[in-house]
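Annotators were shown the component list below and the corresponding predicted structure, then asked to write short factual statements about the assembly.
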Amino acid sequence: MRELTKSALSYTWAMSVFGLQQAANVLTLSNGRQPRRANSACFSVRQATQNEFGDLVFAAYQVGDEVQRGLTEIFFDTVTLQAFNPNYLSMLTSAVTDQSQDTLQTFSSTENARLAWQTLRNNYEVFNLVKHVSSLLNVPSEGSEFDLSKLVQDAYALGAYPDLWAVEGLGHLYALTFWNKGRPIRGILTDVSPEVLPAKSLTMMHAGIGLGFAQQLMNTITPYSAPEEIRGVLREFITLVDDNSRRGYEGAAYESLGLVTRFWHSQMVSVVDEHLREIAPHVLGYYWHGVGRSLYFLPLFFVPGLLSPWLAIEREAPHELAFLNMTAGLAWATTIVNVRQPELMENFLRMRGERVSRTPAFTNGVMSTLIMGIDITPGDTYIMRFLEYQPTRSDARVIELWETLVAQPARQAVHYVHPVLQKHEGLGEVFQYHASLPEMAARLERQGGS
Amino acid sequence: MREFTKSMTSYTWAMSLFGLQQMVNVFRPGKATESFNNVTKATEDEFTDALKATFRAGDNLQKGLVDLTFGVLTLGMFDRGGARATSDVTRQTGEAFRQGGRLVNQTVDAVNQTVQSATSAAAGAAQQSAEWAATASMANDVNTRSQREAGPGPASRPSGGTSGGRPQGWGPMPTQGQAGK
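Structure shown to annotators:
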């Protein structure tokens, strides 16, 4: 109690002094960088506070923060008269109309509401699997021996579907054990025998270590850090991935940088893009794929029908590469989370099919995620059932969309592309957008044969 | 300004939710204490040296007073440990006041330095203005003379009066302008 009182008073005192510091940062006009300093200080303290939040409070924070940022933008656009520009008004009206339409469709019938409820349950299940992987697998506490072989077996013992999320979570915890021991971290996935780490676990183990490295490193920079500092951190991330990944799996780990950045450091998304473009353009596609994947799990979009992540992509993607990869990443998450109930995908096509059919990225995401899924759990019954699903309750147009956007490409992905990528060590490639995965597979076959 | 507004609103929102989170954490005092300490540490890292000293002085003082209060409330004042605690508190409080004194001195020094630099800057600026005024008046003289010689027509801009087109005397202005941004 005494310690708690002291800490609470220290905190109150620190906040008062911080107010003074911020006033000085804002009012001191002798240095042009002061407002930047005030923003930077706010960001750091906010980040530290955010790290202390529980799940519900974090969700409330993120939703409130996104809303206030949107409202602030509109306020300043109105004050600066930009809001009266016809293009601006038309974009705003169209965004509001699209969102209202989406929400109305989701709750337009009891059947749609039931499917939305099922999606929410799936989201919650996945969230819990990822969140509680440590207790599910009885991962030993820090300092105890990390028996990777046994933990991987335990993850697979959870069965098809949970195993995928458990393996990713395990990769994350595995990377942290090395991080806590100190640098250098090398060969954590390359120097492990296949008996300990079976090939089928490699994609999501790589995604997991990427998650661990990215989480630790992204906490050390802010949008106001010096450019050299930001580049240093990004270079360190890339080096860590390269030093610890098996050949052909690097993409799985790179992708997690986007996931971490959009989920916990949304203000850094464009900053990281800008620097990656200069220091590692080969990582950019994976990065944006991860940004897209994270949208599915954001608290803001967690409840189906309230706000649509698909509309967010159109607002947030700064360029074509980002748009394609974000769409593929979001399609990836939508498909794999709901793979056990293909009728959810059918319903999705009924509502958004026409819109997503305008870009090949949606189908690419569906194919990629099924390749990853069948690789992690060979012969996965849910994936096999998904491939055989025939929509019956929809009209002819939706059935056609199902065949062209989902069913045919999915069968091709599982039966043709997956074995080729596996053979040619190219599974990491499914973690970014490719215009045509079958063509890429054919190219790999030609190069391998010659 | 836009970014700053968003930043401040985010911060305020985060702090409000932190209060809520800590209310939930009150059933786990260890976690609540750790959370307070983590946020306090992150905040302290943002202080300049002078404010860091102020914070530490106040923090030591409050910690001493809390110990003293808890000592009294738990009647620990009357045993030997209590006596030691009292002496610790007295020492800490004394140290805090000494730190506070040093801080006041530092602040006074800083204010003095600021005033001195401001005075010298003002003097420099006055001198500079005088030079600019002289240059401008010379330029005006030249312009007036040339206008008189050339007859009526559009007036030359002041910079046109400087030698070789270089903006002599206007050098510091862009820097001041940028600082204001």
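Statements collected:
1. The CA atoms of residues 250 and 446 of chain A lie 23 Å apart.
2. The mean pLDDT of chain A is 91.
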